[in-house]
């Protein structure tokens, strides 16, 4: 597991934001708990059954612009989405993630 973390291209941040994922005609709701410029982990309110491997997903996270990507993997109560972003979009998302992270830290103090 530690090796996998070392392979990541983007630093991940723990967040807690309501979100919905749209894959074709399916809509899934839940909470994004892990976010980076490369992707997100979404813990779902109901199981993500019968999602096609590598399905295209539009992700709508509270306080962020919509993001597009594909299904990277599923886990017991959620999915991981890998974003399909160009460099400028990654930079914009990184700035938004840091703003969100800093706001969460300020609330905790």
How would you summarize what this structure contains?
This protein is α+β, with helices and mostly antiparallel strands and 109 residues long.
Can you characterise this structure?
It is a single chain. Helices cover 26% and strands 44% of the residues. By secondary structure, it is an alpha+beta fold. It has one domain (2-108): Thrombin, subunit H. It has a six-stranded antiparallel barrel with strand order 1-2-3-6-5-4. A hairpin with a 2-residue loop joins strand 1 and strand 2 (26-35). The protein is globular. The termini are far apart.
CATH architecture grouping: Beta Barrel
Structural class: alpha+beta
Order of secondary-structure elements: HEEEEEEH
Separation, N- and C-terminal Cα atoms: 32 Å
- CATH topology-level name: Thrombin, subunit H
Give me the number of helical elements. Answer: 2
The number of strands is: 6
Contiguous runs where pLDDT drops below 50 for at least 5 residues? 1-6
How does the SSE layout of this entry go?
Blueprint: H1 2-7, E1 13-23, E2 26-35, E3 39-44, E4 56-61, E5 67-75, E6 78-83, H2 87-108
Antiparallel strand pairs: 1-2, 1-4, 2-3, 3-6, 4-5, 5-6
Write a concise keyword list for the protein shown above.
single chain, 109 residues, alpha+beta, Thrombin, subunit H, 6-stranded antiparallel β-barrel, 2 helices, 6 strands, 26% helix, 44% strand, globular, disordered N terminus
């Amino acid at each position: 597991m530690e090796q996998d973390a070392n392979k990541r291209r983007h630093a991940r941040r723990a967040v807690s934001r309501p979100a919905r994922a749209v894959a074709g005609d399916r809509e899934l709701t839940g909470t994004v708990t892990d976010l980076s410029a490369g992707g997100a982990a979404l813990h779902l309110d109901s199981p993500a059954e019968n999602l096609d491997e590598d399905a295209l997903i539009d992700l709508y996270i509270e306080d962020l612009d919509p993001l597009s990507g594909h299904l990277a993997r599923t886990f017991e109560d959620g999915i991981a989405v890998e974003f399909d972003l160009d460099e400028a979009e990654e930079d914009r998302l990184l700035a938004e993630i840091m703003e969100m992270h800093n706001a969460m830290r300020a609330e905790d103090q």
